[in-house]
Design goal:
Largest sheet: 6 strands, mixed
CATH superfamily of the largest domain: Aldehyde ferredoxin oxidoreductase, N-terminal domain
Strand order of the largest sheet: 2-1-6-3-4-5
Structural class: alpha+beta
Bound molecules: iron/sulfur cluster
Distance between the termini: 31 Å
Helix content: 25-40%
CATH class of the largest domain: Alpha Beta
């Protein structure tokens, strides 16, 4: 199978601050993003290593179609061993760094080692393919927005940045990795948030990566039919319901109806503040305050990202997502989207996962350490994370660390990672993903929004969704354009000019999941431990508090044994 000439892996050694290129292995041609990260981790990383030690590996891998003209396809995966789950982790982000790396034929940046001086800070410059590791001590401790503004002030308009905030520098397990978006301001508002990979980047002394593709061209497909597929796929999408045209925050009323707009640390499935937290209020604010919907990366036709302005009409944050409104809003009994917007901006500045931080704050409130709904105290607390106070470090290390620090038992998590907004009690197949999937509690790994499944349907529904989402997160497509395996195999066929089959991609998705499970087993995960926190098993929500995560371990573990592929596997849309 032919492919773009000159594809390569960029290997960066942070122990001696050197770098080199390796040819990209031919057999990995159809792998990008999460799948490629899993292969590199399996090849290069000892699963028993300390996640914050020199032997962990940080992978930055764009999807296969990043850097091409395929619509909404420029995502990047950040991978490594997670300090939260102690297993393999991938988190996915938009913005333009993924496209820029691929235009330079860099299929992944693989960061290894660790500087001897834990206080040293470095930047990695990739200028039109020329690579240098430079001193970045001037950026030490900077918040993400100021860091990117300073860095980009004298750079060409074509550059983009991957960075961490103070939380990553402090190696806190809830730290995220930020990517700059495609707008003129190039704000670090797109976060590979889950699993604490910002802490891994911080442990390597790497504050930022600057990628300037200069005049590098868009990646060219082997077949001209590729452009025809772009047109027909875009038309089909734009003529359709465009479910996310007002952003993910528009699902708030639906989630509340399904008992998955959780309130007060998940003691209830519905929030009395659903109206003031509904994304419709954000859309209404555009007329008076400005802001609006935009695309976070070049070539995205979904434009799900809302730019939220404050009451004075000044930029506050983007995007304010459903997950953030649930975890930092409803679950903390914080009432309005304006308060959550402030908290979201702070998380982006400090470099924190809004899900993990929201869950930690809700646990602090539930344990009596803060009043429910006190957004002022929550704001002060996030500032403490950046300052590295003891309380700040506890929150920055996530939900489980906060439960431990407070001696509080109601800590909803899966494999040490806070449960996302989508609750496993009404959505049991999603719960199976959280309980047995290699990513721990991460909805992007396999979200099934179907409360009507019977017990014997749960494992297969979760498994199929995990395979489709794996293929999607390897392709570069955003989950919000909802590609199917059939669509992705058509794209790969036209890009490489040789037949790629639906079965090939389905098998590849399963193989990558198996790589991740094998890594986790070697890291110490055991199948008998697959499951979720007691509070999700024993405490009900919904009518008569009847909804519990009462799925048996046999059903949970059945999701790890491959089912005979059904037609739906190839035609179902990825969901995030
Ligand atoms: S759909 Fe939304 S998150 Fe996905 S690339 Fe577009 S703007 Fe970014």
């Amino acid at each position: 199978m032919a492919g773009p000439e000159g594809d390569r892996l960029l290997i960066v050694n942070m122990t001696d601050q050197t770098s080199s290129y390796e040819p990209f292995p031919e057999e990995w041609k159809l792998l990008g993003g999460r799948g490629l990260s899993a292969k590199i981790m399996t090849r290069d990383c000892d699963p028993t290593c300390d996640p914050l030690g020199p032997d962990n590996v940080l992978v930055m891998a764009p999807g296969v179609l990043s850097g091409t003209t395929a619509p909404t396809s420029g995502r990047i995966s950040i991978g490594g061993k997670s300090p939260l789950t102690n297993g393999i982790k991938e988190a996915n982000a938009g913005g333009n760094p993924g496209q820029h790396l691929m235009k330079l034929n860099i299929r992944a940046v693989v960061v290894k080692g660790q500087p001897a001086d834990a206080d040293a800070r470095y930047g990695l410059r990739i200028d039109e393919g020329e690579v240098s590791v430079v001193d970045a001590s001037d950026y030490k401790g900077m918040l993400n927005y100021a860091c990117c503004e300073k860095l980009l002030a004298n750079e060409s308009k074509s550059a983009s940045v991957i960075s961490i905030g103070p939380a990553g520098e402090l190696r806190l397990a809830g730290a995220s990795v930020a990517c700059t978006d495609q707008d003129q301001e190039r704000r670090p508002a797109r976060h590979a948030a889950r699993g604490g990979l910002g802490a891994v980047m911080g442990s390597k002394g790497l504050k930022w990566v600057l990628v300037d593709p200069g005049k590098a061209k868009t990646r060219q497909p082997a077949s001209k039919e590729f452009n025809k597929l772009n047109k027909s796929y875009s038309k089909t999408y734009l003529d359709g319901p465009q479910m996310f045209k007002h952003g993910t925050s528009s699902v708030v009323p639906l989630a509340n109806m399904l008992n998955t707009f959780v309130y007060k640390n998940r003691t209830e499935g519905q929030s009395p503040d659903v109206d003031t937290l509904d994304g419709a209020r954000i859309v209404e604010s555009f007329e008076e305050r400005g802001g609006g919907m935009h695309n976070c990366m070049t070539g995205c036709i979904v434009k799900c990202s809302n730019i939220v302005h404050d009451k004075d009409g000044n930029y506050k944050t983007s995007a304010l997502e459903f997950e953030t409104l649930t975890l930092l809003g409803a679950s903390c009994a914080i009432k309005t989207f304006d308060e959550v917007a402030e908290l979201d901006r702070l998380c982006d500045e400090v470099g924190l996962d809004t899900i993990e931080a929201g869950a930690a704050i809700a646990i602090l409130m539930d344990s009596g350490g803060m009043e429910w709904g006190d957004s002022g105290a929550a704001i002060a607390l996030l500032k403490e994370v950046a300052e590295g106070t003891e309380l700040g470090k506890m929150i920055g290390n996530g939900a489980v660390a906060t439960g431990k620090g407070r001696g509080h038992k109601r800590v909803p998590h899966g494999r040490g990672q806070a449960i996302p907004a989508w609750d496993p009690r009404p959505l049991k197949a999603t719960g199976v993903t959280y309980a047995a999937g290699p990513m721990g509690a991460d909805h992007t790994a396999g979200l099934v929004v179907n409360p009507g499944l019977t017990e014997d349907q749960l494992a297969q529904a979760s498994q199929e969704c995990q395979i489709v989402n794996m293929v999607c997160d390897s392709s570069g497509f955003c989950q919000f354009i909802s590609p199917s395996i059939d669509l992705m195999k058509d794209y790969y066929t036209l890009f490489y000019g040789e037949d790629v089959t639906r079965e090939q991609l389905g098998d590849q998705g399963w193989e990558c999941l198996s790589d991740e499970w094998s890594f986790n087993t070697a890291a110490g995960w055991k199948d008998e431990d697959n499951g979720l926190s007691d509070c999700l098993v024993n405490e009900g929500i919904g009518p008569d508090n009847a909804m519990k995560f009462d799925v048996s371990l046999d059903v949970i573990n059945a999701s790890k044994v491959r089912f005979e592929p059904r037609e739906e596997l190839y035609t179902a849309a990825a969901s995030g």
